[in-house]
Structure formats: structure tokens, C-alpha cells
Write a structure and sequence with these properties.
By secondary structure, the chain is of the alpha+beta class. Helix content is about 30%, strand content about 25%.
């Protein structure tokens, strides 16, 4: 039998996460450590980011890669591989994005589930 999981709220996660040396995602009160990616994953994500960045020039939208937090619901914060936002508040934030237009996750056999 496993131990009960202690859940925290979004505000507590954000304070805690800001102090961590590694990235951690937040899902319905639970924290999940991010693991490093493989070379091929980085190449694919980088190519997608580069293509989107070039395509979005002059559009008022911007592509971001990996190390940015995206809050997709009140109790969910992720670090997507690549995302695009056109939202004015998102384009001015340095901390957490809340209105992505496009979110891309690069999947592998081990992460697709």
C-alpha cells in the first residue's frame, strides 16, 4: 500500500517552484519532476520552434521553447516543448503564460501514453 499523496495549491506550488534548480510540473495538487530529454527530442523541438519563429515574424505572435511555464487550468501548470501565444499579457510576462494559441509536445515511445 502506498503512502497518501499530500496535495498543495497553485500559489504554494508557484512559490516552491520558483526556488527549485530543476523544473517541476503541477497537476491537480501534485508536483511532478521533469526529466531530461534525449538528443533527438531536443532536435525535433528545436526544429519545430525555429520553423514557427520564422513563420510568425511580424505577426504579433511569438513562439517559445521548453523552459517557460504554461498554466492551462487553475490546477495545471506545464512546461511544454514548444508553444505559441498571441496574447498581449502573455507577451509581456516573464513568469507564467496563461493563453497559448498552440501547444506542442514532442512524444517518444516512452512518453506517448
Amino acid at each position: 500500500m502506498g503512502l497518501p499523496v499530500s496535495k498543495i495549491d497553485l500559489a504554494s506550488y508557484l512559490v516552491w517552484e520558483h526556488e527549485q534548480p530543476t523544473r517541476n510540473e503541477f497537476y491537480q495538487g501534485e508536483i511532478f519532476a521533469m526529466v531530461g530529454s534525449r538528443r533527438v527530442h531536443g532536435i525535433v523541438a528545436g526544429n519545430v520552434f525555429a520553423a514557427l519563429k520564422n513563420q510568425l515574424k511580424g505577426s504579433g505572435c511569438r513562439a517559445f521553447i521548453e523552459d517557460q511555464k504554461v498554466q492551462v487550468a487553475q490546477d495545471m501548470v506545464f512546461y511544454p516543448d514548444v508553444f505559441v501565444t498571441c496574447n498581449k499579457q502573455d507577451l509581456e510576462t516573464d513568469y507564467i503564460f496563461t493563453a497559448p494559441s498552440l501547444v506542442i509536445e514532442v512524444l517518444s515511445t516512452s512518453t506517448q501514453a
